[in-house]
């Protein structure tokens, strides 16, 4: 019998499926729930157990991990008679790894405390590749004791795992992360169009740029997307649009100016309005190409 905590996993999308599978590989017993049957089949094929409802998934769990798209989905799975808070046992640890507003995380922690459930907000960075390779960066908000309890499990999912402060802090840091990533992708996209229009060997140029101060994880991860115009979603424009809304709103609330971030947020929104919301966020290249006269 394993002495590891029993895990309930809610949300088995692009990120959640490989992350839950990494826990199974690490020896955890994982019971999962999501709305798509094929994702449940994938979980069982990996050695997990499929539940028929949130209530069934969380009932006997020591740790509940949630990975859903946005604040409305977190609220939908957490609250109400069929939700996590009404069905998880007192003393359980809820680790929400979704990317949501800091206030949603603060409110969830308060509501869960009344039920005897501990909460961490623990959003991640690294995209689908980072999830598959278990090298995610995990930024956590909550209590030190709860972080210490969750850390062995988080170490099966990521490499950089940091407690950033009280409830909501993980989401605040994730918002900053998404700001940096979006601006970085936009800069890379502009450089790609500039280089191509200048007749430079694009692959060679990106290699040498990535070896200097202009290098970044974004350029490493997205180089092939740019070269091949392969925008299969690892992280969709729709989700980055949501995240840019979170960071611009949070910045306004604390009085922080984001002049470049505001422009990039509008470019992300315009790309989504043009029907590209389902593409990977590296598709910001398409926006620059359109602005530069390309007919896509």
Explain this structure.
The chain is 54% helix and 13% strand. With 296 residues, the protein is α/β, with parallel strands linked by helices. The protein folds into 2 domains: 7-166, 3-Layer(aba) Sandwich (Rossmann fold), CATH 3.40.50.720; 172-292, N-(1-d-carboxylethyl)-l-norvaline Dehydrogenase, domain 2. The strands form 2 sheets. It has a 6-stranded parallel sheet with strand order 3-2-1-4-5-6, with helices on both faces. Helix 10 runs antiparallel to helix 11 and helix 12 (237-254) runs antiparallel to helix 13 (259-276). It is globular and about 60 Å long. The model has no long low-confidence stretch (mean pLDDT 96).
Features:
N-(1-d-carboxylethyl)-l-norvaline Dehydrogenase, domain 2; about 300 residues; alpha/beta; 2 domains; six-stranded parallel beta sheet; three-stranded mixed beta sheet; Rossmann fold
Summarize the structure.
The protein is α/β, with parallel strands linked by helices. The chain has helices spanning 16-25, 37-45, 54-58, 71-78, 84-87, 102-113, 127-133, 144-154, 169-197, 202-210, 217-228, 237-254, 259-276, 284-291, and strands at residues 7-10, 30-33, 49-50, 63-66, 93-96, 118-121, 124-125, 136-141, 158-165.
What's the CATH superfamily of the largest domain, by name? Answer: NAD(P)-binding Rossmann-like Domain
* Multimer state: single chain
| Distance separating the two termini | 57 Å
Strand order of the largest sheet: 3-2-1-4-5-6
Largest sheet: 6 strands, parallel
